[in-house]
Amino acid sequence: MADNVPEYSVTELSGAIKRTMEDAFGYVRVRGELGRVTRAGSGHCYLDLKDERAVLSSVIWKGSWSRLAVKPEQGMEVIATGRLTTFPGQSRYQLVIDQMEPAGAGALMALFEERKKRLEAEGLTASERKRSLPKMPSVIGVVTSPTGAVIRDILHRLRDRFPAHVLVWPTAVQGEACPPGVIAGIEGFNALPEGGPIPRPDVIIVARGGGSLEDLWGFNDEGVARAAAASRIPLISAVGHEPDFTLIDFTADVRAPTPTAAAEMAVPVRTELLNDLAVRGSRLAQIVTRGFERRQLAFKSAERGLGRPEALLGPSEQRFDNAALGLRRALQSRLNAAQSRYSELAGRFGPGLVRHRAELRAQQLKTLSGRLGAAPARTVEKAHARADAARLPRRALLQHVARNGEQLSVRTKTLRRLGSEKIEAAQTRLAERSRLLSSLSYMGVLERGFALVMDEGGKVVRRAGGAKDGDSVAIRFADGERAATLGKGPDTSRKAKPKSASPKAPQANLFDE
Questions:
Q1: Exonuclease VII large subunit C-terminal domain: which residues (predicted)?
Q2: What is the pTM of this model?
Q3: Are strands 55-60 and 45-50 parallel, antiparallel or unpaired?
Q4: 283-311: per-residue pLDDT in tens?
């Protein structure tokens, strides 16, 4: 019996089943609820059609997906039209869907209500978060189709009411490209920086003309509604006509019944503003004129009571002149006194004064050194005198002498150390002042090749006119003195000036003792 059963390969049997199923169910319409909906990276969509007792695997190829007016979502009740076939790779059958439509308007409205409730639960439709529109926007952004009648109606109404700069973000307003295009327009306007090359809109209008529920379904996309709620720029929703409601209407800041009404909401009437401005300007001019007249009368009255400006300012100007003159005299007096004091101190300061101060300091240092050397002996003598006066017992006296001897030894060491430090400091100061004396002494100048000229009385001859021809003078060099008689020198008045300036001779007062 088994030998009469034909034998098939797996591929042959799968192909026979495929042909049988496609012949029996070539083209079918199936009504059901969408379960799992998955969009693959290739663009194909895999989904399940189900009812209460069965599940039918289905697929929508990429080409058919782009033609669908309403995209499938989980939970929708739809009517799918397509071909029933098998998938031999997994031994299952599936429906290849060519067309899909909602199972009546009720299914779309149920999906609309579900999305609306989700947005309301998140607070995106609350009136507290909606922003007010600017009174006079300078830039208006419009997200719509650039070729439809909507943009022409908006531009015409803006031109009649209040001309403003309009930026159009072109996008599809129907079909699969509508939601991502509208989202890109809203987010793109918000991303424009203030003060950039492209002006940032003060208000955004999302507009589309009327249509069926399927035509307007792109504005019921949840992503579009969330983009409108997240906009930082006030947004007007103008989708469809008065009876039409879409999901973006509830999350936008303002809903307009038509695109033309949106343009009227966005801007005021220019003629009304001009009339109001004229009335306010006239009232302001009248108020300013009356205020000016009152202040002019008050100023004239005050002017009559003040008297002549010369009588008010004359005494003050005179006091100022006297004070300025006194200040000038006081400053000159202080300057003269300071110059006299400076000359007096400069004359007193010389090599003799420094030498005298150095000798005085050396004598004080010698006296201090002698006192420091005799201090330990005097201290011992005083200790013995105090011991004799106290008449202490021998043992206590010895202990007292021992303690005082220790203290005396410590203090002697300290005294010697302090004396050595004092002597070293004094020697350092003496050496510094000796160097200062050497630097100020005229002998250092004589060592450099200069000479000191003195008359017969021992006074320094500072100028050539200070001695006459034939006078005897003494010339002091670094290594001694020579006598000389003055005579008339050669005439140097016509000699050329030296090529380079030679150092000036030291001033004569440097050699005064």
A1: 126-484
A2: 0.43
A3: antiparallel
A4: 999 999 899 988 888 888 877 777 677 66
